[in-house]
Design goal:
Keywords: Aminopeptidase, Hydrolase, Protease. The chain has 5 helices and 10 strands, in the order E-E-E-E-H-E-H-H-E-E-E-E-E-H-H. With 217 residues, it is an alpha+beta fold.
Length: 217
């Protein structure tokens, strides 16, 4: 399969490029699907802006409050707006349902025109991206649970359950709104609270140190 690594097609990663890794696993109590993009060196201005705008789209959709029984396709453009603002876009869906120890891409939840309306209890991915052919690719994918929002009328919002930091090296803070920065800081606090003690319990001190550095406000 062309998707499997081989000695003929593999190459050495360099700190001078972006690295997108789409990862996850099947566990007895659920399925995970999460994508992060990193750069270990000096990203170009375009790479940094594109990454930040993908992150902005991820945040804008994740923190959206919307009426019950809203179709995913109605809110999908919130994940694209920050990219659209500067004439960028991505050519894939914004998210898909995810099974419980079942399919990683599970029908019928998602943001396409033929998906069912969003309801509390559904899990969907939120995964905007940006790709420049032959140069680099960016995707930031989280899994989110649809939950009831703290509003008088029955509205919905998302609770992101993928607790993995984003790459600080690629974020241009000057592009983010105060609301987006507040969301990021709250998300990082949740990562520290949930993942930090587990890393200590497993005596993974290096990972714990990395987590603390990666989740600084």
């Amino acid at each position: 399969s062309p998707l499997s690594p081989s000695n003929g097609s593999s190459r050495t990663l360099s700190a001078r490029e972006m690295y997108l890794f789409d990862t996850g696993g099947q566990y007895l109590d659920g399925t995970t699907d999460i994508t992060r993009t990193v750069h270990w060196g000096e990203p170009t201005p375009l790479q940094k802006e594109a990454y930040t705008r993908v992150l902005m789209g991820n945040i804008d959709l994740s923190r959206l409050v919307f009426p019950s029984n809203t179709a995913g396709v109605m809110v999908e453009s919130f994940a694209r707006r920050a990219l659209w603002d500067v004439g960028l876009n991505y050519g894939h869906g914004t998210g898909h349902g995810i099974g419980n120890f079942l399919s990683v891409h599970e029908w019928p939840v998602g943001f396409q025109s033929n998906n069912v309306p969003l309801e509390a209890g559904m899990f969907t991915s939120i995964e905007p991206g940006y790709y420049q052919d032959g140069e680099f690719g960016i995707r930031i994918e989280d899994i989110a649970l649809v939950v009831e929002a703290q509003t008088e009328e029955p509205f919905l919002t998302f609770e992101v359950v993928s607790l993995v930091p984003y790459d600080r090296n690629l974020i241009d803070l000057s592009l983010l709104s105060p609301e987006q920065i507040h969301y990021l800081n709250s998300y990082y606090e949740r990562i520290r609270a949930h993942v930090g003690p587990e890393l200590l319990r497993q005596r993974l001190e290096d990972a714990y140190t990395w987590l603390q550095e990666s989740t600084e406000p």
